[in-house]
Amino acid sequence: MSVLHYDKHTNSFLLGVGANLYQLSENRAKLLVKCGEAPETTEKGEPIKEGEKAPRAEGPAYITGVATCEGRVAVISNNKVVETFDRDFQRVASTVAIKRATSVQITDKTVVISDKAGDAYSYSTDLTDRKYLLGHVSVVMDMILTPDLNFLITCDRDEKIRISHFPNCYNIHSYLLGHQEYVLKILLLSPNLLLSVGGDQKLILWDLSTSQPVQTLPSPQEDYITISYSPPYILACNSRHVTVYKLTDTTLTQTSQLVTDHDIIDVASSDSRVALLTREPKLEIYQFSEGVMSGKCEVEGEIDLSQFKDSVLPEKKKVVRTAGFAEYFERKRKRIEEENLKEESKQAHINLQEKSKETHLKG
Questions:
Q1: What is the largest CA-CA distance in the chain?
Q2: pLDDT in tens, 255-268
Q3: What's residue 156's pLDDT?
Q4: How far apart are CA 262 and CA 241, in angstroms?
Q5: Are 20 and 34 in contact (CB under 8 A)?
Q6: Any residues with CB less than 8 A from the CB of 260 and at least 6 apart, and which?
Q7: How many Cα atoms occupy the beta-carbon half-sphere of 280 within 13 Å?
Q8: 193 CB-near residues (< 8 Å, 6+ apart)
Q9: CA separation for the pair 262, 249 (Å, rounded)
């Protein structure tokens, strides 16, 4: 697939096409780095010792996710490789995940990935010290680490949005239940507002203080493909339509709609520009003002869209799960419970040690 990401720290767009990561400034593209190369740590996130065989990536690489913070950039690829780069796009570290990563988040101290097995893990930014965080019984489609680092919000193929305390994610804060199909994307609009889009042709605005929906907008055309947020505007894409909504308090109101010549793959937006990737493939930049897209121009420079990989939406639920599936989910449920019990036991041991130290000091 191909990925668009707005990097607010440099006011530019990042585009992953094949294994190549590009930076889009104004309407020109610059090749930054080729991703998905051999890792420098073991699958446990530990440094490779002399004579030790490095884990192998699976197949040719193409970028599936990009995340940025002030000092680092994280990239995930379909061949299970996870990488971090500094702001000069020199590779800091790389490793191979247990399963193919589906989404990524990064802070100055932590990298968090989710995977197709429904699990989430954290790493240090040099991709060592891997820690299990949580597990879903289906694929995690998207993930958000809140700016205060207090919560990890995940969504999955089984209609659920889960809010977990971070980093002790075995401690579940709440669920957001309102979709009837997979939840494809989530966006944190403010500390108390979350936007989600699913395969049920719904755009749902959630009040996180109550874990309840405050507004539901059905798609005027087909299933939503992707969404983007540039305060106070949300861009929601489906098929060949980009619908722009304005957020006022807790209400979304449509301000404009753009019809494209080709099916939309991804979108990213800043306060003045919108980058749109279509299936032709073609990459276009629009001017963006007062909730209206205009002044389309094609991107120039060293960009090769021939490595374009189409994205595929998950299948919708059509059949009742068989006994084989039931056995798998039961094993998955037990494993998640075991991982959570380990984390709880570890935390209890730490608390006991701290309490013992306090008692000793008082004595």
A1: 76
A2: 999 999 889 999 99
A3: 95
A4: 9
A5: yes
A6: 240, 241, 242, 276, 278
A7: 11
A8: 205, 206, 207, 208, 247, 250
A9: 34
Amino acid at 21: L
Please state the pTM of the whole predicted model.
0.84
- The strand pair at 110-115 and 101-106 is best described as antiparallel
How confident is the model over 89-116, as a mean pLDDT?
A: 94
Return the higher-pLDDT residue of 31 and 320: 31
Using CA atoms, how far apart are residues 54 and 29, in angstroms rounded to an integer? 34
CA distance 2 to 309: 6
DSSP 8-state code for residue 224: -
For residue 337, which amino acid is it?
E
Residue type, 345: S
**CA distance linking residue 233 with residue 290, whole number of Å:** 9
Retrieve residue 311's tokens. Answer: 């994205």
Tokens of 351: 């608390």
Cis ω before 281 (30° cut-off from 0):
yes
| CB of 162 closer than 8 Å to CB of 154 | yes
